[in-house]
Design brief:
Blueprint: E1 7-8, H1 14-24, E2 26-29, H2 35-51, E3 64-67, H3 70-73, H4 77-81, H5 84-93, E4 101-111, E5 139-145, E6 157-158, E7 177-178, E8 186-190, E9 195-196, E10 206-215, H6 224-227, H7 230-233, H8 238-244, H9 263-267
Parallel strand pairs: 1-2
Antiparallel strand pairs: 2-8, 3-4, 4-10, 5-8, 5-10, 6-7, 6-9
Helix pairs in contact: 1-5
The structure holds 2-oxoglutaric acid (AKG) and fe (ii) ion.
Length: 281
């Protein structure tokens, strides 16, 4: 029998979120942001959501739309991406074994009515199925409910505890449980957790804001330098631009030009100013 998804309230401290995430590979933090915040982000993104085509294969979903570049397309999105509870938990589960972590992808996933369940997978398979050592977490995702997530409308389905399972298994949907949650809640799940999008048997779309994070020495799934180029990143708070990838991932990783730190490109200091490579990443 599969256990339920652990859940905590919005007032939970980082220790509680970390403990659940380490034990189960997933956790829901209920109503971490208010409805207005989700509504503002949805309003910013509405034209892009409407213009997004459905997926072109079974994995992305023929009745599912994925709208990316969220940093560039919604000012309020940054509040989700850098929410203190999220960064606090990531500092523990990713930041404990890497110099830093970065955004991996930003997307609204809208599962339309009639979409079947997505196949159950590990997100870290994106790294060409490299067999990372068990317990060495390279990726963590958040899925924010833009509307209520129910079993009927396609709430993300997870297998709590499966982050400890062997790699390259093919669990079935009946081994999963739905991460039901009210609007404004967030589901955390490690890149090693077996999960998948749920089937939408309702008559309306399920919208979730999926923000992934990965160790800074790995390639990002969504290319942030194209999704959020320096002239756009310049409008963001510095910490957020750095989180997007405008910083070195370790001592020498990601420099450009004459040993410059990537954030210099955001500042527009390529041509002059002292070299910045000697500083900490
Ligand atoms: O939409 C969802 O609930 C999950 C989607 C997912 O796991 C994926 O596309 O990798
Ligand atoms: Fe996934």
């Amino acid at each position: 029998m599969t256990t339920e998804v652990p859940r905590v309230g919005a007032d939970a401290n980082v220790d509680e979120v970390e403990a659940a995430l380490r034990a189960s590979g997933c956790v829901v933090v209920e109503r971490l942001v208010d409805d207005d915040t989700m509504d503002r982000i949805e309003r910013d993104l509405e034209p892009f959501l409407d213009a997004t085509p459905a997926g072109g294969d079974e994995f992305t979903g023929f009745n599912t739309r994925r709208t990316g570049s969220l940093l560039a397309r919604s000012r309020d999105f940054g509040f989700l991406a850098a929410h203190p509870t999220v960064l606090g938990a990531l500092d523990r589960v990713l930041g404990d074994h890497a110099t830093s972590y970065q955004l991996h992808l930003t997307q609204v996933i809208e599962i339309g009515p009639g979409e079947p369940s997505q196949y159950v997978h590990r997100d870290q398979w994106a790294f060409d199925f490299f067999p990372f050592p068990a317990g060495f977490e390279v990726e963590c995702h958040t899925m924010w409910a833009m509307n209520d997530f129910t079993e009927e409308n396609g709430a993300t389905r997870v297998i709590p505890g499966s982050h400890c399972w062997e790699d390259k298994l093919r669990p079935t949907v009946d081994q999963t449980v739905p991460a039901e949650m009210p609007k404004g809640s967030v589901l955390f799940y490690l890149g090693s957790l077996y999960h998948g999008g749920g089937a939408n048997r309702s008559t309306s779309a399920r919208r979730g804001v999926n923000v992934g994070y990965t160790l800074s020495w790995l390639r990002q799934e969504e290319n942030q330098y194209l999704a959020c180029p320096p002239e756009v990143a310049r409008e963001l708070p510095e910490d957020l631009a750095r989180l997007a990838g405008y910083r070195r991932g370790a001592y020498a990783l990601g420099y450009y030009g004459d040993l410059r730190d990537p954030y210099d490109a955001v500042r527009g200091q390529h041509a002059d100013g002292p070299p910045s490579f000697s500083t900490a990443p």
